[in-house]
Amino acid sequence: MVLFNQMVAAVAALSLLASNATAFQFPSPTSTAATTSNRRDAIKDIVSKGAIGFGAIVASNSYNVEAANALVEGNVPPGKVKKTLSEEYRQGTAALGDSVEAEVLPREAYKKLESGVIYADISKGDGDEVKEGKKVNMQWVLRRSNGYFVDSSAVSDSVPFIFTVGDPNGAIQGLDEGIRGMKAGGTRRILIPPRFAWMQGVDDGKPGPLPAGFGPRQQMRRVMKDRIDVPGEYIFLEVKVSKVR
After folding, report:
1. Nearest partner of 161 among 187, 182, 135, judged by Cα
2. What is the DSSP letter of 210?
3. What is the 3-state secondary structure (H, E, C) of 5-50?
4. Which residues contact 98 (CB under 8 A, 6 or more apart)?
5. Chunked mean pLDDT (size 10), the chain, 245 residues
6. Distance between CA atoms of 1 and 98, rounded to whole angstroms?
7. In this predicted model, what pLDDT tens digit does every residue of 153-202 receive, in sequence order?
8. Do residues 136 and 163 make contact, with C-beta atoms less than 8 angstroms apart?
9. Which residues of 77-108 are buried (b: 16+ CB within 10 A; e: fewer)?
């Protein structure tokens, strides 16, 4: 009710200005000062009786504005965007759909490798284990460290990324390290420092998974160029191993 009264008073002030609009139409030199003074006095009187000005009204309204949904860059994401945690344990959206996999993981679920790569198992598989020399098929979701969706295998008709663990020309280093120990059927969230990502670039034939299309690739080029040394910067990969052989 207080806010409503303030807004009504402010509208009254505007109405008063509108009624004196003729004062702005070619005023004579002798009348300008008097007109301005009268207008200022009238507004001052309204403010003293309850209006507090538009700045204060805007400020009070800002507390009632709900946060907007996260922006999405690149391709259209297959699922909803979830908010991220702060520091190095920020959350992405779980790989491959809105299910129990999409639940936020506790901090203690995350493990940090010596390289700085961080990972947490969303769900454990029961198939063959990912080891050095094994060929892996996986589905993936790629996000930037602010949680913005970039690309996923689902956007490309769920064609899996296939690589041999330990092959320097197969997967980016952070993925090659972070996927080890998984089992077929499992899903894992991997946070990769940019220096262990696309150091050779994001063009065809380079270690992957590679985002498809100019927009998503350009996003990763900017990250690799401008944010490679930014503390706490990570590339989010959420992967689901579908086959190990």
Report:
1. 135
2. P
3. HHHHHHHHHHHHHHHCHHHHCCCCHHHHHHHHHHHHHHHHHHHHCC
4. 79, 80
5. 50 47 41 49 47 36 34 45 39 40 76 95 95 97 90 93 96 97 96 95 94 94 92 93 96
6. 41
7. 999 999 999 999 999 999 999 999 999 999 999 999 999 999 999 999 99
8. yes
9. bbbebbebeeebbbbbbbbbeeeebbeebeee
